[in-house]
Amino acid sequence: MTHLLFLHTLLASTFFAIVPAFWWLGMLAQFYLVYPWLLRFFTRIGPGKACVLTCVICWGGWVILGHVASLPGAYW
Questions:
Q1: Farthest CA pair distance, the chain
Q2: What's the half-sphere exposure (Cβ side, CA atoms, 13 Å) at 60?
Q3: Where are the chain's structural domains?
Q4: 46 — alpha (psi -120 to 50), left (phi > 0) or beta?
């Protein structure tokens, strides 16, 4: 099911267990699904603010995922 929904690249438990071609297809599908929203975001608030907010959201997400992954019994 995770392969059909292109979510297998988001799960740390299966990240290294998948075929590289499936990983690439998942990343490509995620990019094409997110790109229109990202483009609209950049055109609405301007490239400078959008770039800063995108970086803060992405880096903040990595920090949060790092803390969640370190919790005992965490699925990630």
A1: 42
A2: 6
A3: 8-69
A4: left
Degrees to nearest 5, angle at CA 17 with 36 and 13: 75
- Amino acid (one-letter) located at 53: L
Which has the closest alpha carbon to 5: 20, 25, 14?
25
DSSP 14: G
Higher-pLDDT residue of 59 and 73 is: 59
In tens, the pLDDT along 31-54 reads: 888 889 889 999 999 999 999 999
pLDDT of residue 40: 92
Task: Give the Cα separation of 21 and 62 in Å (integer).
Answer: 24
What span, in angstroms and rounded, lies between the C-alpha atoms of 66 and 21? 26
